[in-house]
């Protein structure tokens, strides 16, 4: 059985202009120790999905349909106390900007100990021992000194290590990392990513990595979900998606990677921009930007087609697979 | 810490110097002190001689220099009306004013923090809406009207509260007579304190509310939720501590302002403090007393602001007092 099972998840935001659905029909599984990449342009709903797993979407957003099964419990309709006991304990999060994530007026130690004490009956000294040990795990030099320091006394890379240490404090089953390297220096980015993969592997922690960096996804994850306008459009093993993307949108993302361009050549890009959630086109949401769009794409929502080990929501891919099958049949 | 004190002391001296200059210029331009001091029978020639003797005909800077010299020795002149040293007259009245400000501050702290925090956490509840509505009214109504309204309701109609004066006081130390230690004194303190608090309280509720709402949107509060902390700890430690930083700064300035606002409150309640005394002094053109009041209030401002900066440094770790 999968560690985390998301079924037909739907998240809505009640705005004055009416209800807007930020996520529709999201279903996926995550196994123990598995690392999953969640990619898409800004506004695709990656972060909303990450936050909704812990029911952390703030008003006026809410989970309007679907189930999130974890450890025999449906996180989507757990009591406030029930979900609190999961947060930071069984499932923890790492945020984008380490400069903003830590409370500026509390010491590193206070922010670590409180997390342990929120979930376990534990003395300050015992909690401190665990905290210092976790700081060592993320290679913080002289952890005892850092323990008593305030966030502003540390560099960005150091702070993100501390956030990772906090995420690991209670040996969680899943870590949800929302663009953990975006706000960091390029040289630090690789270091932090390596550290996260190493720690997840060593502690058998599953990772949901939210990013728009396909390079990071290809190195760090085993499974990838590509999102567009609040829906999953392609999911499968990372290797297959990177090497042989099926959906025109995923192909577009791959082509937009700078390392594939010859120096001096213009970078490829997907024309147009992601539509705002209030004005998602009918049919396939990607059709106005797609080079292969046909009549059907503008009318009907594509369903998932199996392609290799991947699931792809595209009329064109569906037609191609059908043609192959009939050929094989003949 | 010591460096901070020396720096602040230096600033305080400059501020007090400017205040003394302004106060003295006021004295210099505020009518003829001789008219108040001597009777009708004194001839013009005698007046001239007296002016020369008192140095009132000297150039401004020389007079100011002499004034400053006296001030440094603790001599702020002699009140024309009381025929006593002005500083002593003022200091005798200071306890009453400080206790009034103290009472109002207690009320403000006691009410503004819980009300501000509640209306930030639950901005859409009916109670928050009522608090916000009432606070707008509180800001708009002038102090003397609030005072008269409270006297009418609680002193005249209901008869629960005394309408004027300080009630019984006990002598503490250094001639400090306090109304805080007798039931009658406390009873008399309630209405004036609420009146004085009525201007600042709505301001602080709204300030705390808006700061808190902003802090609740911050990444570190979201992260605190993601860590699975109890809501109490998130609201009252993570959020409130950050909310209070700007509130402390504003609060320090406002305490000083409140000392000035006591003039109105004390007058309506016949409260025997510095503000009431000041208004009397203005009516009697008792210039040494006016100048002494301005200098004492200036000193109170400087002292409270220094204390506030110290507290701020304790709350905010990014401010190093010893720094620079």
Automatic annotation (TrEMBL), chain A:
An example Gene Ontology molecular-function term: ATP hydrolysis activity
Annotated protein name in UniProt: ABC-type dipeptide transporter
Membrane topology: Peripheral membrane protein
GO cellular component, one term: plasma membrane
GO biological process terms, semicolon-separated: peptide transport; transmembrane transport
Family designation: Belongs to the ABC transporter superfamily.
One Pfam assignment: ABC_tran
Entry keyword set: ATP-binding, Cell membrane, Membrane, Nucleotide-binding, Transport
Origin superkingdom: Bacteria
EC numbers on record: 7.4.2.9
Cell location: Cell inner membrane
The species this protein was found in: Oceanospirillum multiglobuliferum
Primary localization class, coarse: membrane
Reactions catalysed: a dipeptide(out) + ATP + H2O = a dipeptide(in) + ADP + phosphate + H(+)
Residue ranges of domain ABC transporter in the record: 4-254
CDD domains: ABC_NikE_OppD_transporters (cd03257)
InterPro entries named among the record's database cross-references: AAA+_ATPase, ABC_Ni/Peptide_Import, ABC_transporter-like_ATP-bd, ABC_transporter-like_CS, Oligopep_ABC_C, P-loop_NTPase
From TrEMBL, chain B:
Lineage, broadest ranks: Bacteria, Pseudomonadati, Pseudomonadota, Gammaproteobacteria, Oceanospirillales
Organism: Oceanospirillum multiglobuliferum
Cellular compartments annotated: Cell membrane
Keyword Metal-binding: no
The protein's name in its UniProt record: ABC transporter permease
This protein's UniProt keywords: Cell membrane, Membrane, Transmembrane, Transmembrane helix, Transport
Ranges where the ABC transmembrane type-1 domain occurs: 94-312
PANTHER family, alphabetized: ABC TRANSPORTER PERMEASE PROTEIN, DIPEPTIDE TRANSPORT SYSTEM PERMEASE PROTEIN DPPB-RELATED
TM annotation in the entry: 9-27, 100-118, 130-155, 189-208, 243-264, 290-315
Membrane protein topology class: Multi-pass membrane protein
GO BP annotation list: transmembrane transport
Record-level GO cellular component terms: plasma membrane
Principal location: membrane
């Amino acid at each position: 059985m999968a560690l985390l099972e998301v079924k037909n998840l739907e998240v809505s935001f009640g705005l004055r202009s009416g209800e807007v659905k930020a996520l529709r029909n999201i279903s996926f599984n995550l196994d123990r120790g598995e690392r999953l990449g969640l990619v898409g342009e800004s506004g695709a709903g990656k972060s909303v999905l990450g936050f909704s797993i812990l029911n952390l979407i703030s008003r006026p957003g809410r989970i309007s349909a679907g189930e999130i099964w974890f450890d025999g419990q449906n996180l989507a309709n757990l009591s406030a106390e029930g979900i609190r006991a999961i947060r930071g304990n069984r499932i923890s999060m790492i945020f984008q900007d380490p400069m903003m994530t830590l409370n500026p007026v509390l010491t590193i130690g206070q922010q670590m100990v409180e997390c342990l004490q929120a979930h376990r009956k534990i003395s300050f000294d015992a909690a401190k021992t665990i905290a210092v040990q976790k700081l060592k795990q993320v290679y913080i030099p002289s952890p005892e000194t850092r323990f008593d320091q305030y966030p502003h006394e540390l560099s960005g890379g150091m702070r993100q290590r501390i956030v990772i240490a906090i995420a690991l404090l209670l040996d969680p089953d899943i870590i949800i990392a929302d663009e953990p390297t975006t706000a960091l220096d390029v040289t630090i980015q690789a270091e932090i990513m390596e550290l996260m993969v190493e720690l997840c592997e060593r502690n058998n922690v599953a990772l949901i990595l939210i990013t728009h960096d396909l390079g990071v996804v290809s190195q760090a994850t085993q499974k990838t979900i590509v999102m567009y306008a609040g829906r999953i459009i392609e999911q499968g093993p990372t290797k297959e998606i990177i090497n042989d993307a099926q959906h025109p949108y995923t192909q577009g993302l791959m082509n937009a990677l700078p390392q594939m361009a010859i120096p001096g050549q213009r970078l490829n890009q997907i024309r147009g921009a992601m539509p705002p959630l209030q004005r998602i086109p009918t049919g396939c949401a990607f059709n106005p930007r797609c080079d292969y769009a046909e009549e059907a794409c503008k009318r009907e929502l594509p369903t998932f087609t199996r392609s290799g080990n991947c699931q792809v929501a595209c009329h064109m891919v569906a037609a191609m697979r059908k043609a192959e099958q009939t050929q094989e049949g003949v | 810490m010591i460096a901070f004190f020396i720096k602040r002391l230096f600033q305080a001296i400059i501020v007090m110097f400017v205040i003394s200059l302004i106060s003295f210029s006021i004295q210099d331009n505020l009518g003829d002190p001789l008219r108040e001091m001597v009777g009708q029978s004194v001839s013009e020639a005698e007046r001239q001689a007296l002016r020369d003797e008192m140095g009132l005909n000297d150039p401004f800077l020389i007079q100011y220099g002499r004034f400053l010299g006296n001030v440094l020795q603790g001599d702020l002149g002699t009140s024309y009306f009381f025929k006593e040293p002005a500083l002593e007259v003022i200091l005798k009245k200071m306890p009453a004013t400080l206790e009034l400000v103290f009472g109002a501050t207690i009320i403000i702290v006691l009410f503004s923090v819980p009300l501000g925090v509640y209306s930030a956490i639950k901005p859409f509840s009916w109670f928050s809406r009522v608090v916000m509505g009432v606070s707008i009214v509180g800001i708009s109504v002038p102090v003397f009207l609030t005072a008269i309204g409270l006297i009418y309701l609680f002193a005249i109609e209901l008869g629960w509260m005394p309408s004027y004066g300080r009630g019984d006081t006990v002598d503490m130390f250094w001639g400090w007579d306090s109304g805080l230690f007798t039931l009658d004194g406390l009873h008399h303190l309630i209405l004036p304190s609420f009146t004085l608090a009525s201007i600042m309280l709505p301001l602080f509720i709204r300030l705390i509310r808006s700061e808190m709402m902003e802090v609740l949107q911050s990444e570190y509060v979201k992260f605190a939720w993601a860590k699975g902390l109890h809501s109490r700890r998130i609201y009252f430690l993570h959020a409130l501590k950050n909310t209070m930083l700007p509130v402390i700064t504003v609060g320090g300035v406002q305490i000083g302002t409140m000392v000035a606002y006591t003039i109105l409150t004390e007058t309506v309640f016949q409260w025997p403090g510095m503000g009431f005394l000041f208004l009397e002094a203005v009516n009697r053109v008792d210039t040494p007393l006016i100048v002494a009041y301005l200098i004492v209030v200036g000193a109170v401002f400087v002292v409270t602001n220094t204390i506030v900066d110290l507290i701020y440094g304790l709350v905010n770790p990014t401010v190093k007092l010893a720094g620079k």
